[in-house]
Design goal:
Radius of gyration: 13 Å
Structural class: mainly alpha
Distance between the termini: 20 Å
Strand order of the largest sheet: 1-2-3
Strand content: 5-15%
Order of helices and strands: HHEHEHEHH
Length: 125
């Protein structure tokens, strides 16, 4: 979970952990930290904000996808304009979810990214 707001990261981590046991959730507060963690840890999916200090989420997504092309990156952002979605797609993002749609769209997107939609969507709500 990559977001510069610790409260949002914590809330998202707790929400996912409460719905789906068995995930090891790691957090990063910057794009640089996310790239470094992805290179050192076994990562299966990345949830990436766009606005980050230093390296932004688009650049971090590009770097992670260059290093580990098999890792899906899901952008989770407050920005809803189509231009952001297009930029995320160009950076190699697997999916783009507006933060106000996280409760409805994140678990199904994670399921598709991990190849297990039924497993992740059962406690959705």
């Amino acid at each position: 979970i990559v977001d510069d707001h610790a409260h949002f990261r914590s809330a998202l981590r707790n929400w996912i952990a409460g719905l789906r046991a068995g995930f090891e959730l790691i957090e990063a507060g910057s794009g640089e930290e996310a790239v470094a963690l992805a290179g050192r840890r076994e990562v299966h999916v990345v949830l990436m904000d766009l606005e980050l200090p230093g390296m932004n989420g688009l650049d971090a997504t590009r770097r992670i996808r260059e290093m580990l092309p098999q890792i899906p990156v899901i952008i989770v952002s407050q920005h809803i304009a189509q231009v952001y979605v297009e930029q995320a797609r160009a950076a190699g993002a697997f999916a783009y979810i507006a933060k106000d749609k996280v409760c409805l769209e994140l678990l199904p997107a994670m399921g598709r990214a991990l190849g297990t939609p039924a497993d992740l969507d059962i406690h959705h709500g």
